[in-house]
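[User] I wish I could look at a protein chain and see how it folds. I have put the entry right below:
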Amino acid sequence: MRASIRPGTRHVPWGEATYKVGDPVLFTETNRFRPVIFNNLKGTITDIERVPGRITFDVELQREVTETDVRFTDLRWVEGSTVQFDVFERPGSDDDDDQVNTLVPFQLAYAVSIHKAQGLEYDSVKVVITDANEERISHSIFYTAITRARRRLDIFWTAETQQRILCRLAVRENIKDESLLKARRGIVPVGTRPRKTRERPRP
């Protein structure tokens, strides 16, 4: 009989990471489970079993999955949108050739980089900008970060960091972005867009 690990009981170490039931995950290695699992698919760990040489995860996916879908894959259907799979220990610590079934195919998703968050949306988003990553915040990266939130957005930065970043962001006239923000976030321009005028060539 499988031993289930319930939230708040204990953590399960594997390699350099530690997992527990209830952890949100983001799939990053998907070749093994195609076409059921794709890159950036989100899920939640619902059960874990560890025995010598192997760890087994049950993960509830944020997509519909049927028993038929997982046929001819390394996945086992549990119920609803929950699937199960095994990850095995590497044969030797000196072996750099990782087999696909020795790789944990996801990362914990309590926090993800802005790059990894592209194409994803969350009800609540917290963006942390520090002196260490400030120089990497370009106009496009900042736009990607703030448009991941459906309902609530919090940005954590110092007043000095905020001033430096906002001062160097390019002001662009992008009607498409403006329409998207208006439709999805209810954000409207604070004023009328000034019309561009062309200078007449001097005679």
